[in-house]
Design a protein that fits this description.
This protein is 61% helix and 4% strand. The protein is mainly alpha-helical and 237 residues long. Helix 4 packs across helix 6. It is globular.
Length: 237
């Protein structure tokens, strides 16, 4: 059984033309707006306004909102409608735990399965460029970081793993667009990335697993500290 890999929002630009399925278009546009915080956390989603902006009827809009609700990117409240999901410390811990369970194992598989061409591509993606205090540079840096992690998982040649990690990486970037968690030392993750690639290139599955786990937990601790400093709540209010 094959599992189709959906496009990641870290790799595509917003749709400039509508795909064949209108609900898919509405879903993609809204999801990108939520992940990039163009629709900020906790904002109420008024169907009449969204229909006018997207030039669609309520049927494809509600279908898209239901899909986003299943992904916990929007929440529905009776008599109040839909609202963009909040960013919380508890929610982010869940993302870190998910990544820490899946990505090290995927990295170990990559060490066993990656081709020479894929390893060369990983090496090219490992170094992250970033100009401190430049907002757009930071956004590009975070996207490049996610692109590297996704490329590692793709070396495992398992679409199911890829889809899980892709979804987590997309959500992991939300604080970026609120200027939370700015990385002041880009050499640190770049160094960690090259260490991960070194282990994959040696086909050392256990070293690759440990390097990825350490990297995810270290980055996660930094982000949690930044969320606390920004007064992000532990749970949705």
């Amino acid at each position: 059984m094959s599992t189709a890999v959906r496009p990641s929002l870290i790799e595509i630009t917003p749709h400039t033309s509508r795909p064949a399925a209108l609900p898919d278009h509405v879903y993609a546009v809204l999801k990108q707006k939520i992940l990039s915080c163009t629709l900020p956390p906790n904002q109420r989603l008024i169907e009449k306004i969204l229909c006018a902006e997207l030039r669609v009827s309520r049927t494809p809009l509600r279908e898209a909102l239901n899909r986003l609700s299943h992904e916990e990117l929007v929440s529905f409240q009776p008599h109040a409608g839909y609202r963009v999901a909040a960013i919380t410390i508890a929610g982010f811990r869940n993302l870190i735990e998910l990544r820490a369970i899946i990505e090290p194992s995927a990295c170990a598989l990559a060490a066993a399965r990656a081709t020479a061409t894929e390893i060369t591509e990983l090496r090219a993606l490992a170094t992250l460029d970033y100009v401190p205090n430049d907002e757009q540079s930071f956004v590009k840096y975070c996207r490049a970081n996610s692109r590297f992690h996704l490329a590692v998982v793709r070396c495992a040649h398992n679409p199911m793993l890829e889809n899980l990690v892709m979804s987590a990486l997309d959500m992991y970037q939300r604080p970026t667009y609120l200027r939370i968690g700015r990385q002041m030392d880009p050499s640190n993750p770049s160094e960690k990335h090259h260490g991960i690639v070194d282990a994959i290139e040696r086909h050392d599955a256990e070293a690759a697993r440990q390097a990825m786990a350490k990297h995810i937990f270290g980055g996660g601790e930094r982000i949690i500290a930044a969320l606390k400093a920004a007064d992000i709540p532990e749970h949705a209010r």
